[in-house]
Specification:
The protein is mainly beta. 3% of the residues lie in helices and 49% in strands. It is built from three helices and 27 strands. Residues 202-419 form the Polysaccharide lyase domain.
């Protein structure tokens, strides 16, 4: 592909003597790599005595070539509210960004090898034809040709694969005593912001955990929100798949430039598991908190290893890279709202150590509206076999560390209720 990029001017002497710029390699966005070979051609203007340069760039695109969307259907024996597994083959490498079904139920991408995928789900009603719509991006000049075969799991096996709730907390005591208030989260670690925590029935029939953000507060101000880590007493060791759910209510929010929300965390069995935040990513932990961004845009905010990620990790359209702090996964896939309750679900499946086959799904449901979900796959969360999911990192404040951009625009609150940690006994939760 040859593209005339731009016209530019420069003073005499700006071009190399041979009238050819040094070859440069740039990446103007997260989805396309371009290679520029730039030449200078010029002439001297008698009146301005300036050299006008016409810059012509030959752009060779070596990234993702186009959008892909295809609906795949297959006749199957009656799916009686059971589990199914779809095996999808693509003729060309494909980056899947969304999978949807006409039949309801939960869907997860359980295997992604670039050209071979396994998608698992549970039908919400009886069907004899299973249809999936697969969307994504493809590389190269040839549009992928995609096929699907479906296997149905027996009812006995489907029932065995349902999820197990290991901890839940619907509400907190309405008290001013912090120890009593926090009792349902025990054992918890590294509690901060006690002065901003309380309980109220202002927006619910039972007391909700309430967090206060003073106007002008952000990551480094003394009063800025609250945080702690919790690993419930009956939480087992060796957890590689986990779901976190809670309801959240934003009151009097301007969302500003962004802020943190609770998410899952993990790592080793020591204090090292608590350290992945605030620009620290020591390799003993990983954290997958959520964030709100401008206008309520949501994302997964990931402190994960730099090593052993997929080859296209830095160029994916669903990831904004930040090695100094956390990476933004799926920014804008969902949108939080101020002034109403919404249910958050985060589901994490750890990778095989040092392999980029982990995944995280982020869902949001507003009232009676349909739940909106987005999933990021082919990720490395851990490099060691004894690093597991450890529980919930409750962390919420405005920031970022810049008062100019991240300070809370208003005196505002969040309210939390109906916490749950759920361990899926397989990759599908029903």
């Amino acid at each position: 592909m040859v593209t005339l990029l731009y016209l530019s001017t420069c003073t005499t002497g700006a071009c190399p003597k041979n009238n050819e710029f040094i070859l440069t390699r740039e990446r103007p966005d997260s989805t396309v790599e371009t290679y520029f070979e730039i030449f200078c051609l010029g002439w001297v203007s008698r009146t301005q005595e300036m050299l006008f340069i016409l810059i012509l760039a030959l752009t060779l695109t070596a990234g993702l070539a186009g959008d892909f969307s295809q609906t795949l259907c297959e006749h199957v024996p009656t799916i009686d509210l059971g589990l199914w597994v779809a095996k999808v083959h693509s003729s060309e490498p494909l980056v899947i960004t969304k999978i949807s079904s006409q039949h309801g139920g939960d869907i997860v991408l359980s295997r992604d090898d670039g050209k071979y995928f396994e998608i698992q789900g549970r039908a919400e009603y009886n069907v004899t034809t299973l249809c999936l719509t697969v969307q994504g991006l493809y590389r190269g000049d040839f549009r992928p040709y995609v096929t699907m075969e479906v296997n149905i799991l027996p009812q006995s096996e489907a029932r065995a694969k349902r999820a197990t709730e290991v901890w839940s907390l619907a509400s907190v005591p309405q008290t001013t005593d912090i120890k009593t208030l926090m009792h349902g989260f025990e054992p918890y670690h590294h509690l901060w912001g006690q002065g901003e925590l309380s309980a109220t029935t202002k927006h619910s029939s039972s007391p909700a955990l309430t967090v206060h953000y003073p106007k002008g507060s952000y990551a480094v101000t003394p009063q800025r929100g609250a945080g702690f880590m919790t690993t419930p007493t009956n939480f087992p060791d060796g957890v590689t798949s986990l779901i976190l759910k809670y309801d959240v209510y934003f009151e009097n929010f301007g969302f500003g430039w962004g802020g943190k929300l609770p998410g899952l965390y993990g790592g080793d069995k020591t204090e090292g598991a608590f350290k992945c935040s605030g620009g620290n990513n020591p390799g003993t932990c990983f954290s997958l908190r959520l964030m709100w961004r401008e206008n309520g845009d949501g994302e997964v905010y990931a402190y994960i290893p730099r090593e052993h990620q997929a080859s296209d990790f830095e160029h994916r359209p669903d990831i904004e890279i930040n090695y100094s702090y956390g990476h933004s996964l799926m920014r804008g896939a969902i949108r939080f709202r101020s002034g109403s309750w919404q249910t958050v679900t985060e589901e994490v499946h750890l990778n095989t150590p040092q392999q980029a086959n982990g995944r995280v799904k982020f869902c949001l449901k507003h009232g009676s509206e349909a739940e909106v979900c987005k999933e990021a796959t082919r990720l490395n969360f851990r490099n060691h076999a004894d690093y597991f999911l450890r529980g919930m990192m409750f962390s919420t404040f405005f920031g970022g560390s810049s008062s100019t951009h991240f300070a809370a625009p208003n005196d505002c609150h969040t309210y939390f209720r109906n916490f749950a940690l759920i361990i899926p006994s397989n990759t599908v939760v029903g």
